[in-house]
């Protein structure tokens, strides 16, 4: 095989971000060691700490530099809730969302799997193995809103959900394609079209139209409130869920809880056209309550690295990481291990 180099940007971020990212990088290097593909790393300091130190959120020059990489591995950003030194939402909007929008990460992929040996808070979870394809560039997250008379009794605040035929269609088609490649071949649209009628109709019509291209995939529909019921009472009914940015944000936290917690939930912010690098990150945040103590579970970051490998076409390496995680998780006894101990064990297993 011909050898090649993957140019990887690493954004460790704040809190436990650097701790879990270090383990994900360790595993990436271990699984590719001696193989034809080598990772070349470039680290970017960004996040709340970086803003406090420099006043920068995401300078255009940094954004341009990031565009030159093949992929991005991201930890987490954000200060402790209630920390008054950073305006609420600043880092989210000017850094994280700016990255997702500028790099056109229209597929926010969040797999949910209950691994053997992991305790679910559900008494009888059954087999849980589904993916949520969350739209990543539209919905209520575009900053399409404003405020009048802020702080007065006559305050007016708007936050308009933006849904384009183009944006909905490309993510729906991606979800159908993913469903067609899975054994159960089932897609569920989650929305709220009885109340959010205009956006809801666009989503529903788009699913009906794209479904014709995928006759082997069955599809159904759930209102988002009903979807939260089934996620708890019967999560095994789901295979591929496609939904908008906000609903996807909320139901994937629930999905993470049902499948054993936020320490295991991985995600990818994917640009399927390849025009810009895709970015892979654990679903969790910077966890200021346990930061710097080597208490964080790096598994979500490591599974995000597996998604990164798969996105780059390194399927064998991705599967090796996922198998190693599966074995590690199954062997967990409840005895606490440090973040690095977990990372070392998984890195050793893929070497
Ligand atoms: P969080 O996900 O950071 O933490 C929630 C709870 O889960 C905490 O008790 C934390 O200790 C625990 N936890 C999270 N990850 C864990 C891990 N790997 N292992 C073990 N326990 C873990 O959410 P929170 O507390 O709401 O937010 C903290 C900061 O993170 C905020 O500034 C928030 O804005 C930011 N955030 C950033 C995200 C990102 O960078 N993509 C996503 C979510 C939140
Ligand atoms: Mg969230």
Automatic annotation (TrEMBL):
Its EC number is 1.1.1.85. It catalyses: (2R,3S)-3-isopropylmalate + NAD(+) = 4-methyl-2-oxopentanoate + CO2 + NADH. It comes from the Bacteria. Substrate binds at residues 100, 110, 134, 225. Mg(2+) binds at residues 225, 249, 253. InterPro entries: ICDH/IPMDH, IsoCit/isopropylmalate_DH_CS, IsoPropMal-DH-like_dom, LeuB_actb. Gene3D superfamilies: Isopropylmalate Dehydrogenase (3.40.718.10). Binds 1 Mg(2+) or Mn(2+) ion per subunit. Keywords: Amino-acid biosynthesis, Branched-chain amino acid biosynthesis, Cytoplasm, Leucine biosynthesis, Magnesium, Manganese, Metal-binding, NAD, Oxidoreductase. Residues 7-346 form the Isopropylmalate dehydrogenase-like domain. The keyword Transferase does not apply. Catalyzes the oxidation of 3-carboxy-2-hydroxy-4-methylpentanoate (3-isopropylmalate) to 3-carboxy-4-methyl-2-oxopentanoate. The product decarboxylates to 4-methyl-2 oxopentanoate. This is 3-isopropylmalate dehydrogenase. It comes from Arthrobacter gengyunqii.
């Amino acid at each position: 095989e011909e050898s090649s180099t993957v140019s990887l940007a690493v954004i460790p971020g704040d809190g436990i971000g650097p701790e879990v990212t270090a383990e994900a990088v360790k595993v990436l290097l271990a699984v590719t060691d001696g193989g034809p593909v080598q990772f070349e790393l470039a680290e970017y300091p960004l996040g709340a700490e970086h803003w406090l130190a420099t006043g920068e959120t995401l300078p255009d020059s940094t954004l341009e530099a990031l565009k030159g990489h093949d992929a991005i591995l991201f930890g987490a950003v954000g200060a402790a809730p209630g920390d008054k030194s950073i305006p609420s939402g600043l880092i989210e909007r000017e850094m994280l969302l700016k990255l997702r929008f500028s790099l056109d990460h229209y597929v926010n992929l969040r797999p949910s799997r209950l691994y053997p040996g992991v305790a679910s808070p559900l008494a009888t979870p059954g087999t849980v193995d589904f993916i949520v394809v969350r739209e990543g560039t539209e919905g209520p997250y575009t900053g399409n809103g404003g405020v009048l008379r802020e702080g007065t009794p006559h305050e007016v605040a708007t936050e308009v959900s933006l849904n384009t035929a183009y944006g909905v269609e490309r993510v729906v088609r991606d979800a159908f394609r993913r469903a067609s490649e899975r054994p159960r071949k089932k897609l569920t649209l989650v929305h709220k079209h009885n109340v959010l009628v205009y956006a809801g109709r666009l989503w529903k019509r788009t699913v009906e139209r794209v479904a014709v291209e995928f006759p082997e995939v069955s599809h159904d529909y759930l209102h988002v409130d009903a979807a939260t019921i089934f996620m708890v009472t019967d999560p095994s009914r789901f295979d591929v869920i496609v939904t908008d940015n906000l609903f996807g944000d909320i139901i994937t936290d629930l999905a993470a809880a049902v499948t054993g917690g936020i320490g295991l939930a991985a995600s990818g912010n994917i640009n399927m056209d390849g025009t810009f690098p895709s970015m892979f990150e654990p679903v969790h945040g910077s966890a200021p309550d346990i930061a710097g103590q080597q208490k964080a579970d790096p598994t979500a970051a490591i599974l995000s690295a597996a998604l990164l490998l798969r996105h780059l076409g390194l399927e064998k390496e991705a599967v090796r990481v996922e198998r190693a995680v599966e074995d590690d998780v199954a062997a967990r006894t409840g005895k606490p291990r440090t973040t690095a101990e977990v990372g070392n064990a998984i890195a050793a297993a893929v070497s």
